[in-house]
Amino acid sequence: MKIISWNVNSIRARGGHVNKILHEEKPTVLMLQETKVQDDDFPFQEFSDMDYKIFISGQKSYNGVAIFSKLDGHTENCFTKNFEEQKRFIMLETDKSIFINVYVPNGNLIDTEKYEYKLNWFNSLNSYLKKIIKTKKMILIGGDFNIAPFESDIYNFNYFEKKILCTKNEIQLYKDLIHIGFYDVFYEKNFHEYTWWDYRINKSNLNNGARIDHFFCNQNKNFNVKVLKAYRLMERPSDHAPIVLDSI
Q1: Helix residue spans in the chain (DSSP H)
Q2: CA trace torsion 79, 69, 237, 48 (10° rounding)
Q3: Nearest-angstrom CA–CA distance, 48 and 31
Q4: Rounded to whole angstroms, how far apart are CA atoms 113 and 107?
Q5: CA dist list (Å): 25 to 22, 28, 245
Q6: Shortest CA distance to 44 belongs to which of 63, 23, 68, 70?
Q7: CA 143 → CA 3, 5, 203, distances in Å?
Q8: Domain ranges for the chain
Q9: Could you list the active site residues?
Q10: For 165, how many CA atoms within 13 A lie in the half-sphere containing its CB?
Q11: How confident is the model at residue 248 (pLDDT cuts 50, 70, 90)?
Q12: What local confidence, expressed as pLDDT, does residue 221 receive?
């Protein structure tokens, strides 16, 4: 089983890139964030030649999540009605597994409403995860978390901890997720490669970035992990690279 998570920063702008990753990597499940399109306008026709079921929860101009799956299952599009206005969550449940795709709010800056919204959103997500972790199924959470939990996960930790991505409150929410019973798959593999690079940075310079895209699992599976940096170097790229789990 191969699982890929990717913030595409617009499915319509990156449709060709998504087609490429489906054809070349052939994931069992592909989780996309920031699709930036409402459901009625999702470009299903671009992927009609692929053997995938597509589940979406979209929003015009921003947010939006999608799951491409070779597995049968049913979906949920929100973990709480308090946060359903922003389309940032979609869950696919199969007979043996639960796949959760999240796009955690960016937060903007400390002492802003957007930062408080981020903290409240993540805290409510953790409350939901406490309830469902009791299942015997494998739960795999992937997505853009907009949190770099360790100093090795961002090129200038001291700068960003005063702004967003690695503040004490954000890192505590990451720790809370671990305490619930999930483990950070890339961290357990001692894998700290960056997954995001600001558009203002020369795209060929992949030293100044952050690891803010993550996978978490409730079972200790033996996964191979990698970051597909080549997708960040393509023409008109997303500012994120896809992250990959491949079971052994």
Answers
A1: 15-25, 113-132, 157-160, 168-180, 185-188
A2: -120
A3: 17
A4: 8
A5: 6, 9, 11
A6: 68
A7: 11, 6, 22
A8: 2-247
A9: 103, 144
A10: 22
A11: low
A12: 87
